[in-house]
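In this section we turn from sequence analysis to structure. A common task in structural bioinformatics is to predict how a protein folds when a small molecule is present, because the ligand can shape the pocket around it. The inputs are simple: the amino acid sequence and a SMILES string for the ligand, here flavin-adenine dinucleotide. Study the lines below before reading on.
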Amino acid sequence: MREVIIVGAGPAGMTSAIYLARAGFHPLILEKEFYGGKMNYTNKIKNYPGFDDISGVDLSEKMFGCVKGLNVEFEYANIIDSRLSENIKVLVSSNQKEYKANCVIISTGLKTRYLKCKGEDEFKGRGVSYCATCDGFFFKNLDVCVIGNGSVAIEEAIYLSSICSKVFLIIKDKFINADDNAIQMVSENDKIEVMLNTSVKEIKGNDKVESLVVKSSDKEFELNLRGVFISLGSEPEGSAFSELKSNEFGYFESNELCETNIDGVFVAGDCRNKFLRQIVTATSDGAIAASRAVKYIKMLSKKCVMSKSL
Ligand SMILES: Cc1cc2nc3c(=O)[nH]c(=O)nc-3n(C[C@H](O)[C@H](O)[C@H](O)COP(=O)(O)OP(=O)(O)OC[C@H]3O[C@@H](n4cnc5c(N)ncnc54)[C@H](O)[C@@H]3O)c2cc1C
């Protein structure tokens, strides 16, 4: 039984751990993949104060260094279910281990949105990727495509054009959804071919990806390529925490103190319903959630009730 458990080791969860440890508590962080969260998907971070140009992986390492330096316990676990309404909160992992705590901070970020076309599952890790920064290197001097619209998809296409021989940017809409500057960068880049109004039918190959079947102007045809980068954005991961109140899009509802509809359960970072989802706002939430968690645990030991308004 713990005083507090943090689910998710992105910038929000790691900041919560730092604040809790510095307040004299012994939090446990549970993480299903790798510490750093979505920061690991970012090539260059230029808007986190104190660093004018740092890679996401390096910033993750620096934050995790602070967490380790405070002897915070870290464990790999994928939380798939929870019972949060009782005084003792229970988190259940995918291998059926139960974790119990007085207080829980949920900082699980967002999950990747899938394309759901034929061949996607079959070729995951064998040509299908969801992160140009992580996997672009494996496609040096090869032809690839980016599927998606919006600033992240454009950024990925531009990044891949510096490594690959050709990048097809496949957009199902009739327009590019990005600012003028990004659109100009794409149109001036000889290696990027933008295919508007084009839908994906199938990813094909043998051992690895070999081609993509697309449909444009009612015609189906095949593009020969080796890499398929799917960049369709993200959505909240709510199924493990079904007792928490969320909005129509699945973001957890909380007040400005990161308190949820359940006493002793706090949310921090991208998974919250809020205006801006960035590293700096994730760390801010992490600090606030941890400070309120400290107060909650102290109140519990004094057997008082903490007032809140949601
Ligand atoms: C391509 C890209 C570029 C970006 N560029 C920038 C930028 O330049 N500047 C900026 O400020 N922001 C940027 N962002 C946004 C920024 O990365 C996020 O806002 C930030 O990482 C959110 O932090 P978080 O801690 O809330 O969530 P995340 O970083 O998503 O971390 C959540 C963690 O929780 C873990 N987790 C999820 N579910 C479970 C579970 N059930 N059990 C256990 N663990 C779980 C995940 O594995 C993950 O490690 C970018 C995002 C992307 C995708």
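The two ends are 28 Å apart (CA to CA). As an exercise, try to locate the residues that line the flavin-adenine dinucleotide site and compare them with your own expectations.
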